[in-house]
UniProtKB/TrEMBL annotation, chains A, B, C, D:
Record EC number: 1.2.1.38
Family stated for the protein in its record: Belongs to the NAGSA dehydrogenase family. Type 1 subfamily.
Entry keyword annotation includes Mitochondrion: no
Name this protein carries in UniProt: N-acetyl-gamma-glutamyl-phosphate reductase
Lineage, opening ranks: Bacteria, Bacillati, Bacillota, Bacilli, Bacillales
Pathway annotation: Amino-acid biosynthesis; L-arginine biosynthesis; N(2)-acetyl-L-ornithine from L-glutamate: step 3/4
Entry keyword annotation includes Cytoplasm: yes
Catalytic activity field: N-acetyl-L-glutamate 5-semialdehyde + phosphate + NADP(+) = N-acetyl-L-glutamyl 5-phosphate + NADPH + H(+)
UniProt keywords, alphabetically: Amino-acid biosynthesis, Arginine biosynthesis, Cytoplasm, NADP, Oxidoreductase
Major site of localization recorded for this protein: cytoplasm
Alphabetized CDD domains for the sequence: AGPR_1_C, AGPR_1_N
Length: 349, 349, 349, 349
């Protein structure tokens, strides 16, 4: 019997952390060896998450790099902004492999991080060591590395929807508008008026228009794809649902092309990648069609009257937008099948 | 004691019809004298709508213009597309005042109606008699007329958000993109997979991209405001909630102007109109903040980096987007206070 | 023109407080003269509740009995448990009329309050002055008083459903089981894991089984109706919705009686009371059928096999379960029509 | 490599059918060899269920016992009432193993079926061949059989919560009241006013009080456990959520016993069964804590004042209440591990 790779999860009492636990429970090559929470160390993980009763019976560990090293080979960080920048160097010193789900190592320029996150950035030397793990775009760089910065939820949905068209030169990079919508779990488990049931239920609201900290991450990859600086208009909305992100994206066509061309372009671009599914002409994905799974589904509408294409991309924000892609990165990093442990069928309805 | 104006409601067993009943129940100058449904004539209205128990105890009448004339002075039509085009001429013959909530008389060009609605259009002679009742834009034309075509829900939210900026020449009419989201009640009370709870709950979906029948209605008014033909990119989405529409709108600025300028422009444009509320800088309205009321709330975000403005406009689709604006049109038509019977405070939470 | 009675609302930034504002906005004999919040004094009420933009433009006042007296004749308290017990005596000294929506004055026995609420009780001398304002049962006592303790949400739904059958001797008081369900707004606006959207959405949970602080209030009135001590089994559940309470109640019949008998009994019991509606045989009310209104709707099912009756009672927890009944008490206290300002049609859908 | 057992699913376009597909996709010993739908034969299964895009690419087969035999060894029927009673005999003739998820073979008395279901019952000779597969109670009978009638959703939640206490003689069988609540997916995928989003969202309603067709199934097992005839009061409610059932159950204690005794009794009763989890004292399960999984979680509250116990039991209606338990039955029937392919962690949040 195979010895499974042992993983530790820092931030096990947040939604990203428990989703990692859910997904890894069925992983063929990895197993959770330590669940870690600085705020609840010493308590059973199932006390705060009764859905784990009888499944994970251990106590939460405290954050201690040497102790983590004794138990695990790989560490996932599912922590709020500002934690990983300080903790990762201590974990790397222990020769642990690290996959960080936070935004702390996504932006190579400290000044950009500080502008958008409003916090001190990680040390430039540490930033340099991170590989940005947007699997379908930069997956080749991930294999064999030991420190991955996992992309954000909005950037994942947005970039998988835009990069092929930009690389092909089919859309004008200066014309891109992203209208994004997210379920509430993206805001985490912290209690505030902004996550209060009665405030959000039967309500739809916009927030952080053009100010979301995912903007520079999106523009970084779009610029890389376009070969020049790209700025975008980016709006985020809260949908009265728990899981799911849709990015509805608009761009000017450089010349008219029917939807069938887009479908073919994207199917070729993502050929061999198990988690991107392209919808047939006249169909667009809905968020529930990827719920609980690692899929990103994409559909197109071309309007000859306006010369614009509308691209619809959906993911489960906690899976492909967080824990699922992190495991996908683990798989690539370790040389396992890209979809090992991730072949979940979306839960519908 | 004043004799109230007697109104009849055709289509009383749809959501638009019962919302008219709810709102008119408190109207100071009008009273519901006949509730009409071709499909359920002879049954008590409260049988299908127990929330009306003890409030409206009458039986539903059948559709009969002469009988309506005997009971009422004004008729509201809250009927599916294709009904009003045939019924309105018979009602006008009876010298009834008519307010049609359907799309049958909104588009003056029969060919355009037939292209977008996929049904035979109304007679051109009848179309000519209709006044398009977007109150805050065309309210002056409504007074004293006897046949009003009430605007659609998406057009109301969209146009109130765009017209002042277009008239002022502050945005490029060729750059307009409207990303609209609606609660499910907009789809009516008909049962289908598309209105099935388990299919829509915890789900967010796009539909009819660039094909929605409200597109030509929006472009008609935008073109009127711009003084030349305007085409737009228009996406509709279904939100897992019952009521509410948000239109998130994007346009290129003709020159940079801060949000404060937009706020001032819109406040002046809508001065004296009781139902448009402009949000202060850095705030955008959420749909629940107008639930159950006739308000349209609007907020702005200007992005200097991209040279675009984002305009957020929300309404309750069944009130300002249907029954409420219809009563506002009644008020204007009759010379009553514009907000008579419509001073409902939004129901929050 | 009538001089309206001026009312002040302490706790204007909670859901009970803003619901009072919503309902009183249309009251023919009363007007809100002061909105009060100890936590947000000095801020505009609309800052925290943008749905009130343009409707209530004043600043929140601080809690100061003499200042309240200068502005108002009647005070509503929509404050958390433990506030009214200290504040009411100071308001009564000012010869203000008081309607307290909290639980502080509902239980005449201090020891019972302290057992169930876990807080110090009000002074016995103050407790004696309070009239328990369950309008349809004790409405006669309310007229002309100056200090009313407004019933709780669960007790209102439960007691209106049980009292007639108990008084008639048709059900065994020892057999009563109440299975109650509430929307989340009943938990107030405070942010906690227990009101977090992602924890409650698509979830149904039981809480405080047999321990809810409304148990003694229910048993107090049931005992009064039965003429002897009654204890009940009482379960509360959270429903993933904002508004609405359903109490599903079970009791053993003292002898078999068909549903029609119950219907007749209740219609006679509530004859002349505008807010209780009895459903016809084979029909039971749903919470949405009273949303936004002051109605309590009741239906019955008798099972000959088991000798039990099931009684279903629904209210809007923020209206008949709080602000609406408080205004109904104001109406009775002042000798106005019982339904003045409360003739709202339920908002459906 | 093991040859997997091939299964066919009749009724693949209903919620029970697609849930079988989802769960079986990861089964170690079984594989879906034919998806069958009489209404949509010839169409790709993913056309109606885009969440299966790229996962199940085959066309739907028509219902043909011989053709099924050629493809499969075991057939699941996830069909509406009245279909299996006619189809099962033809499948058994083909020497197919059959697991029927409908109610057609749960009640051994044809007259009882006809009374509660309002349809002709199955042939008595066929009824005799069925084994009622409530796994944790009758699992021993299942092994080695070839025709299983899978229990209903409400009965599963209810019976797992009541049987141990009844068998132990701790509760009075004449005192049982079951207040059950279900998500909307239990009503199936058929479109009707009763499954319409706008009618159910933000609404809570009771239905079929004491008339639900699951009543005789519940009483059959309770009577078996009690050793004498038991009748119950049984109420069903619709919760505005998609998945999940809670049964809140009330019974008179034969003598006082603290909650700890119940916990111990149930833990012993279900020892070795992987899918029943008992909550510690003072805690009750919520439906989301079992979402997407095959667990049934149970908690207790004993009230000394009334001498009653309240038992709370939750399941996912589409998993433990349908497809999951059907696979559990397959596992038992085939002699595989009881939880093979069913070790899903609940999806939370």
């Amino acid at each position: 019997m195979e010895n499974k790779t042992r993983v530790a999860i820092v931030g096990s009492t947040g939604y990203g952390g428990v989703e990692l636990i859910r997904l890894l429970q069925a992983h063929p090559h990895a197993e959770v060896a330590s669940v870690i929470s600085s705020s609840s160390a010493g308590e059973p993980i199932a006390a705060g998450f009764p859905h784990l009763s009888g499944i994970r019976t251990e106590l939460l560990d405290d954050v201690d790099p040497a102790a983590i090293r004794a138990k695990a080979d790989v560490v996932f960080l599912a922590t709020p902004a500002g934690v990983a920048s300080k903790l990762v160097p201590r974990l790397l010193e222990q020769e642990l492999k690290v996959i960080d789900l936070s935004g702390d190592f996504r932006l190579p320029e400290p000044a950009v991080y500080e502008q958008w996150y409003g916090k001190p950035a990680a040390d430039p030397a540490d930033l340099e060591q991170a590989t940005f793990g947007l699997c379908e775009i930069y997956g080749d760089r991930v294999q064999g590395t030991s420190f991955i910065s996992n992309p954000g939820c909005y950037p994942t949905a947005t970039l998988l929807g835009l990069v092929p068209a930009i690389k092909a030169g089919w859309i004008d990079p200066d014309s891109i508008i992203v209208d994004a919508k997210s379920g509430v779990s993206g805001a985490g488990r912290g209690a505030s008026l902004g996550t209060h049931y009665s405030e959000l239920n039967e309500n739809f609201k916009a927030y952080k228009i053009n100010k979301h900290q995912h903007v520079p991450e999106i523009e970084m990859v779009l610029s890389d794809a376009a070969g020049r600086d790209v700025v975008t208009t980016f709006t985020t909305h809260l949908v009265p649902m728990t899981r799911g992100i849709m990015a509805t994206m608009y761009a000017k066509l450089t010349e008219h092309r029917p939807e069938a061309d887009f479908i073919q372009l994207y199917e070729e671009f993502y050929a061999g990648r198990p988690f991107v599914r392209i919808r047939p002409e006249g169909q667009w994905p809905a968020t529930k069609e990827v719920a609980g799974s690692n899929y990103c589904d994409i559909g197109f509408a071309v309007d000859r009257r306006t010369g614009r294409v509308t691209i619809v991309s959906v993911i489960d924000n906690l899976v492909k937008g967080a824990a699922g892609q992190a495991i996908q990165n683990l798989n690539l990093m370790m040389g396992w099948d890209e979809d090992a442990g991730l072949r979940f069928v979306p839960m519908y309805p």
